[in-house]
Amino acid sequence: MTARRWAALALLLTTAAKPHASAQHHPAKPPAHPAKPTKPEATESPAAARPEEESEHVVQPGETLLGIAHRAKVPRVLIIEANGLTPPYKVETGERLVIPRTRHHTVAKGETGFAIAYRYGVSWQAIAVANGLDSDKPLKPGQKLLIPTLIKPEAVTQEPEPAAAPPPSPAAEAPTARFAWPLEGDMVQAFTRHGKPAHDGVDIAAREGDPVRAAAAGRVIFAGREPQRYGNLVVIDHGDGWTSAYGHLQRTTVREGERVRSGERIGLAGHSGRATRDAVHFELRRNNRPVDPTAELPEHDSAPDVQATEPDKRAAGHPQVRHPKAQKTRPIAR
Questions:
Q1: What is the value of pTM for the model shown?
Q2: Which of 68, 100, 209, 238 has its CA 20 to 30 A from that of 79?
Q3: DSSP readout, 116-183?
Q4: What is the pLDDT, as a whole number, of residue 4?
C-alpha cells in the first residue's frame, strides 16, 4: 500500500472516531416524556377554604389585601374601612381582618341617603364610599346600591352607672328605662301611627341653641342635612336593632362613625327643615319600625339635672327655660 493510501486511511479513521469520543462527554438526551414537577402544597389554612362566607379572616403567608378582597367578594375599600387600615394597606401573616358582608338595595322614587342609612343601620358615608358615590348628590330611582354590613359589629358599651342609693322596697321599685330624654322641654306633639301623615316620634319644645344629647350610648350612622323634612339630623345606632333620631337641629356636633356616650351632646336645638318652631323631633326605632318613645323613656321624677352630666357651654346668664305645656312633659335623664 502506498504512502498516500495510508495517509488517506488514517484520516478516515480519525474522522470516524470523533463522534464516538464526543458522545462520551455529553449528557444523555432527556427522556421523551419527562416527569411532571410536583405542585407546591397550598399555604392557606382550612379556615380560608370558603372566604366568601367568612366574617373574620386570618391572613395567611403570601396573601395580600387585594387577593383577600377578591376571594371574599367584598370591595377592598370596605375591608380597609372596617379594620381601620392605613396606607400602604399591607397585611401581616396571622393578622385578623373583619370581613364586612354586603346586601343590595334598589333606590325607590324620592328615597334619600338618610332613609337608606336609617333602614340598614349603616352610615350613609360608608354606603357612599362602598358605591363610589358623592355623598352630597341626590340618588336616582332604580339605582342599585351595595349596603356594607358588619356581621360581627363592635358591641355597644354602656357607660357605668353611678353608685345607686339604697334600694327601695320591692313594691316601690320601677323598671329601668332603656333610653333617656334628649333634652329638657315640653312635648308639643305626640307619637301617632294613625294620622296622615303619621308622626313617627315626639316633638319636644326647645330654645335655639339648647344642647341635645344622646338618648343612649351608640354609634353615629348619620349626621347631616336630611333634605325632605327634618333638616339637620343625627341618627344613632344603639345595637340590638335600636336606633334613635334627632331632627330640626340648628347644627350637629358629631360626625358619622363616631361613638357617643349616653347623655353626650350630639347637636344644638333649632328649627331646621320643616319645623315651624324651635323644637327637636325625637324618634326611636326597633328593626326600622317606629316605637312610641314614651314607652321607653323614664318618668319625670326619675330625671336628674342635665347640667350634672355636661355643663352648658353657652354663655352664662342664659338659664334653662320652661315652655308653656302643650302636653305632659317628661324631661331627659341626662
A1: 0.53
A2: 238
A3: HHHHHTS-HHHHHHHHT--TTSPP-TT-EEEEEE-SSPPPPPPPPPPPPPPP--GGG--PPPSS--SS
A4: 58
